[in-house]
Amino acid sequence: MTDGGMVDGGTVDGAVLAQLHFGREDAERDVTEGLLLRGGFLPNAAYRAAVTGRKMLIIGRKGSGKSAICMQLMADGVQHAGKALVTPDEAAGEEIRRFELQGLPGDSAKALIWRYVFAVHAARCLVAHVKDAHGRRPDSVKALARFLKQNGELAGDRLGDRLAHGARGLQTSLSLEAFGVKASMDTAQLPPSEGARASRQLEVVEQGVARALTDLRCDGGHGPLLLMVDQLELVWSAEPDSNSMVIGLLLAAKHAAGLYGRAVRFLLFLRADIYDSLSFGEGDKFHGDELRIVWTEQALRDLALARARASAGAELTAERLWREIFPPAVGGEETATYLFSRCLPRPRDAIQFLNLCQETASLIHGRDRITEADVLQAGRQFSAWKLKDLTLEYLVAHPFLKHLFPLFQNTGYVVTRAALGSRFEAAAESLHGLFPAYADALTLSGVIDILYGVGFLGVRRGNDVVFAGEDDLPVQPHETEFHVHRCFRAALGATSAMDLRRYEPVLAGDRIVQGNTGNAVGVITSLNRDDRLLQALSGSCHSILAQVGRAVGLTHDAREEITQQINRVLDDVNSRSPGPGSPDADDHLLSTAHYFTSLAAQLLASGLDDTTGAGGVAHRIENEARRLRLLAGGSYGSSGSSGGH
């Protein structure tokens, strides 16, 4: 046996496939089971920006690896003044969402409660840090410890419970004796409004934290205090108070970062759809703090190899993974490219697809390697998963999403604005009835924007098809051609570029059953004419293919789909030789002409913009169909037109 669990000759040892695992879909379980810490984590630009403090906002789609960065930062061995990860549960989220202060707008009130959360977590971390790492306990740290005790901020309490205490304290009066401020419920001694009183009290607490940071002077001896907020989507809804909760978080982090300086590092991990839905006056001040997580195919390849090595052995090479454990190619396409082009570009999807391939081969079929059939079977299941997952991912923002998918079922995956407009017009009344609150968004342009934004549709730009995340430019009004992402095509039954009728040759055996075999004398006497007719049909095919080649505006997928069907006709012509039992050439031409007519009609009905050249191709096919009928001396709808095409 050679290194990496392979036997001589390049055959995969079944034990390797059994051990192979690409990890869990959630980072928390990956950490618990140890895969993330054994080398399954792939440092990327977002992780490096978080470690260095260059960026404060890490933005990405669900499953893009935000929580994995959190878990890695919490688990790494780098010494910090303290680490705290805030992941609000529903109780904590409800406290923040409903927090209000007289005299302050919603965003500003939410910012105060978040500033309080940061100050309390910083205080708790500093008190613990001094106990563990310092031989002295400055008076400022003692004051923080007393403040925490006096205000019910005990370490064992749930965040929601402590937030409830803090919210009441800000709305009435916190106990501030620890900082030398006399506690008083006498509102006459405090500023007049709730907002002004809360701001003054909070400033006292924040100054106490800042004083302790200054007294410890430990920002140079080790890493700064690290405060992170993640999984806010669990308590977010598309309501104004939820948006205020997120805006308040951003404002609070910006304020606190300026107040505490380099001694505290803030990291906010936000889902892209939530962040992009926000609209507030100071939003432009956060662009310099943003970093969006982007995954390329190569990055996903690197991640797959890192996780494969973490489970099956560090000596596993990319060559062995993609050519021996996995098949070298699937459907004529290099396997890794096939896999990663059929999932949305994020680790969670890639991990699920890879694991499903492994389980299909190992658990379902008992194989010692993954075959092409295993990948294809897993792909159908994975596509169904992802279509459902997309609905759930955007259930809050776009509850109507799953009702749009039937517009793309059992048809070509290339769709034009015109064709989609016709389909949407037929469904619009039903959609508006089901979701009257979203009627303004449920227009043709609105639907296109939404489907592009969630990654379901890509838009053709030049010779490329671009999906959200690859290009910051939204869909433009003049853009007319869209492609369903490969991830969803199998689940929708949209596996070909266009909904073109497949050419099926008429077999001689079919005609024998029908009693139309003819006789040897008839075949021999018509031999030369049959040759000429078949040559004419071959010429028609070449003429159509030439027209397709000149239609430079057609996408590669659409061109390939048309070419494939015409080549099937041409292959059938080339395989025929006159003689006993051969189908009659006249009937064959009429049958093929009928197929050409239906093909042209389907091409025109597809809605492809005529600027692509699709109209020219359709007209060329129609002309060739008419020419073939004239040559055969028949008319549309003659007996050969019903023969199995």
Structural overview:
- The protein has 645 residues and is an alpha/beta fold.
- 54% of the residues lie in helices and 7% in strands.
- The chain is built from 26 helices and 11 strands.
- The protein has helices at 14-19, 27-33, 36-40, 45-52, 66-75, 90-97, 106-133, 139-150, 159-171, 194-216, 240-260, 272-276, 297-312, 318-325, 335-340, 347-364, 372-393, 417-434, 444-453, 486-492, 508-513, 520-525, 527-550, 556-574, 585-605, 614-632, and strands spanning 57-60, 83-86, 225-229, 264-271, 290-292, 329-330, 333-334, 414-416, 457-461, 464-466, 481-484.
- The strands form 3 sheets. The protein has a 5-stranded parallel β-sheet, with helices on both faces. It has a 4-stranded antiparallel β-sheet with strand order 8-11-9-10. A two-stranded antiparallel sheet has the order 6-7.
- Strand 3 (225-229), helix 11 and strand 4 (264-271) form a beta-alpha-beta unit.
- Helix 6 (90-97) packs parallel to helix 9, helix 7 packs across helix 11 (240-260) and helix 17 (372-393) crosses helix 20 (486-492).
